[in-house]
Known about the structure:
Protein name: Response regulator receiver domain-containing protein
Pfam families: Response_reg (PF00072)
Largest sheet: 5 strands, parallel
Helix content: 25-40%
CATH topology: Rossmann fold
Domain Response regulatory: 4-118
Shape: globular
InterPro entries: Bact_response_regulator, CheY-like_superfamily, Sig_transdc_resp-reg_receiver
CATH architecture: 3-Layer(aba) Sandwich
CATH superfamily: Response regulator
Number of strands: 9
Strand order of the largest sheet: 2-1-3-6-7
Distance between the termini: 52 Å
Number of helices: 5
Keywords: Phosphoprotein
Amino acid sequence: MQANILVIDDEESIRFSFQRFLSAVGHHVITAEKYLEALSEMDAMEFDLILADIILEDGCGMDILREVVKRNLKTQVIIMTAYPTTETEDASHRMQAVNYLTKPLRQKGLLYSIDLALQASQTRQVRTKDKPFPFSVSCSRNGCSAKSQYLESNH
């Protein structure tokens, strides 16, 4: 299945290698280095899948998930990070990311995850934007953290 894929990562080597090997297997690949650049690409075309690094120079890849929901897109999102935490993994799944992958990534494993995500996109409904996310995610160059409103004390 050929798909339109957006790769968002601040590391040029990752964007370049993903673009090369995903194009070689028949996908149409667009890359973005920064969050705002990714939003611009999302304005320009519809993507079947987005591969988003969590930590970006000008934003947080997790906010891509929020943007997909806000725009009512059927686009699948895979979150990637070299700095995994239980909080960001849990938050990404609650925000309906199709997968959460830890770098470094192996080509075979990434292709398997992409295939599963694209299969899921054929049966997945548009995400609902009516329900607010019960947590917040904040990212910086030093990492990300997630906070659930359910874990906060009312005292």
